[in-house]
Amino acid sequence: MHDSHKTRRPKADAPKGFRDYFGADVTERKAMLDRIAEVYDRHGFDALETSGVETVEALGKFLPDVDRPNAGVFAWQEEAVPGGGSGDWLALRYDLTAPLARVAAQFRNDLPSPYRRYAMGPVWRNEKPGPGRFRQFYQCDADTVGSASPAADAEIIAMLADALEAAGIPRGDYLVRVNSRKVLNGVLEAAGVAADQSDAVLRTIDKFDKVGVDGVRALLTAGRRDESGAEIEGVGLSDVGAAPILAFLTSRGGDNAATLGNLRAAVGTSDAGAEGVAELAQIADMLAALGMGPDRVVIDPSIVRGLGYYTGAVFEAELTFEVLDEKGRKRQFGSVAGGGRYDGLVERFTGQKVPATGVSIGVDRLLAALRAKGRVGGQAGAGPVVVTVMDRDRMADYLAMAAELHAAGIRAEAYLGNPKNFGNQLKYADKRGSPVAVIQGADEAARGVVQLKDLALGARLAAEVSHDEWKAQPAQVEAPRADLVAGVRAILAREAQRAQS
Amino acid sequence: MHDSHKTRRPKADAPKGFRDYFGADVTERKAMLDRIAEVYDRHGFDALETSGVETVEALGKFLPDVDRPNAGVFAWQEEAVPGGGSGDWLALRYDLTAPLARVAAQFRNDLPSPYRRYAMGPVWRNEKPGPGRFRQFYQCDADTVGSASPAADAEIIAMLADALEAAGIPRGDYLVRVNSRKVLNGVLEAAGVAADQSDAVLRTIDKFDKVGVDGVRALLTAGRRDESGAEIEGVGLSDVGAAPILAFLTSRGGDNAATLGNLRAAVGTSDAGAEGVAELAQIADMLAALGMGPDRVVIDPSIVRGLGYYTGAVFEAELTFEVLDEKGRKRQFGSVAGGGRYDGLVERFTGQKVPATGVSIGVDRLLAALRAKGRVGGQAGAGPVVVTVMDRDRMADYLAMAAELHAAGIRAEAYLGNPKNFGNQLKYADKRGSPVAVIQGADEAARGVVQLKDLALGARLAAEVSHDEWKAQPAQVEAPRADLVAGVRAILAREAQRAQS
């Protein structure tokens, strides 16, 4: 065949770093988000949905480098068309906080103040894709804009604990750890850390979980040799300068009161530090009044949170149970949510300070945790009842059977493939996880009956019994056509009971 | 003040053509989509969520013009970075069908066949924004890929009717009209329309609703003068050539059988036309077996549907009730959903024909219709109970009151703004649509009571009674602190009862 005119076919691939979610991946995430939204709503937070696209200018963070404004974000320039495109640079949002800051500024005269809002939806990051790292993922945020009160932080922290429990993480399996960026700044002040060193110090502190006290001490001063033998340069503080920072990191005491006492010592004479400790003390009191005991929330100075924009309380929720990693080693599941106070984001637009605080839940990680604990998924009978097609001229009858099952609230469908090979229909039902196949050939139609095949029971019998026994097909029963719904219900009920027992 | 160093502030605006959805805008849409998803699920359709970003190559349609591949879509080129960006052109999806075709091709060996899926989510169009026209909006689709059977079309059409009713459109307020692109092709064949004229003929037929039989006759032949007096060029068919097309358009009879009879005559000797009529007849039979009477679905040849990719049955759901337009004139609400059979979309990728059929619901239009009919929104008491702050040192107590209400399932929040001015707190509660304000000053705290202010009743009294009567504040009751939840519940119940009566 001469194929020089054959047109090149497009590749059927999602772009690199993007993925598709099928069936339960979608519905289980949705069910989890619904439960979290209910908690947010009950706390007086209103839903907000901004669009996926913002101006690069409003998103901020990426402005300076005009030649390459899309580092980290997906960005493009609109064509400048009279009456149409503005020539603006547009970008996909990289989180839900930047759009909230824009909304809080744009609608500042219309929104209630304080404004409590929650938002759930996809965000996009133009990062190098990797295993398990995707360029579109879900976030689920709640924020209070316009309140400087530590009560706003305490409320968000308590609500996070409630949300995790509503999602299916029982008390005892998570811990929210709370710290204060102000306290940290006070400690840096007390330690005499120069402004140009503070970023390096923050990055070092963030490694505390990994390298411990001695590791951080070395990294803050002269440096250390890592496991591979490589020399890691230190920040260059003196031992005396590093001491307050180490005191800070290790200041978690037996209870919040002890921790707060240690922090008061660690910030020395720094006013910012004293203010931060006082705020943490208020937050601790309010959390106690809300019934948030140390099994749920603790003050823990070793939490830093990477983002530069935090200005007060910061917190992180960790799951404390162990899971097996890809190499079969036990490890703690780790962080699934975090947040804190950011008083500068709205000011970018308005020039006026607008205090704000909020939390972001990592939706995919939390869902993975619920799956790891067997708390979602695996529902038996999630597949539809399949009405098979024995006689293609009677499609209307088969569709009507499915419709009868729908009207009874039962998930069901008629087989719509080529009905010639009945074995293919049963294979299809198997692939769909179908609990029951309905069969009606000419003989059954004449007698006014249907065959109901319990596919789950059939599969178990096929696995457990001999071929002869299986051939006896005890998993198949005949029912009058008029009893279609009742017969299917009986099988579904039996299987549901079996799944519970 | 010297302000030469003042940095330029970013504009706090959503990009042109994009909008934000607040509160009930989000939750009412979500509730509607949840009801529709339940119908889709019950019919055996599985959820699918693809990402917002696809390769321009996979999306198709926009390929030829390489210099400007983003006409109609938002597109950008990835940087070609070793191990990172591919240099591909990426774009935001403009509908949910193109990504489905890509998924059906990419996962053809894993997906059940036929594959029934539903999808809900935002799509993006790079169009000139206008009043009420946005560049991001929701679609809500269901499609069956891999079945050529008219039963698949009938199932989708019946499911659309069920979905509209589940969303809140009662029977009698909508009508699904069904036609066939194959029948239309048969008519064009019978009419001897040249291939290069068929697009112009399709566009003309699409105007039938507006210009009527005589208008279409004129436009198909020599042209006509429109209302403004401008000459509109005709397609140039002869009267004899236009006759079968006019016969087709006006072939809707008193019932489906009569319509099908007229269509048989209209397609003359065209094989494609005869096949189309036979398929429509099967669809009509199956819809009848599904109990879809002429109050819900009819065969109506005047439905064409613009999209070029349809290859068989096409259909459209219209809302038949009248609403007032922006000028106060009565008009029918019009189309809220449409779809049809498209057998070519997956073939683009695989080279093999994969028959498919589906429906897309215009989410924003359907929601607007429900609002116009008063079937969503306006729930009294959707705002939270506001626990006011009389004594800022007792924030922990106020937070605890809100938490008690949360635990009882009542939407509530403590006031987090500056509590100095109590009037501002009540204004805030008013803005939030709060049903009840909880008040506890030092006096009440000492006596172990709370004041509960019925804000809805208070507002009615303020509107209806004299200032002196209002000052008597019958809308405020005192309750023991221990009865906080019971007292709030009593007021909410009274208001709920009032809203119903």
From TrEMBL, chains A, B:
Keywords: Aminoacyl-tRNA synthetase, ATP-binding, Cytoplasm, Ligase, Nucleotide-binding, Protein biosynthesis. L-histidine binds at D95, L96, T97, R125, Q139, D143, R305, Y309, Y310. GO terms for biological process: histidyl-tRNA aminoacylation. One of its GO terms (molecular function) is ATP binding. It catalyses: tRNA(His) + L-histidine + ATP = L-histidyl-tRNA(His) + AMP + diphosphate + H(+). Signal peptide: none annotated. Its main location: cytoplasm. It comes from the Bacteria. It is an enzyme of class 6 (ligase). Belongs to the class-II aminoacyl-tRNA synthetase family. Homodimer. This is Histidine--tRNA ligase. The gene is hisS.
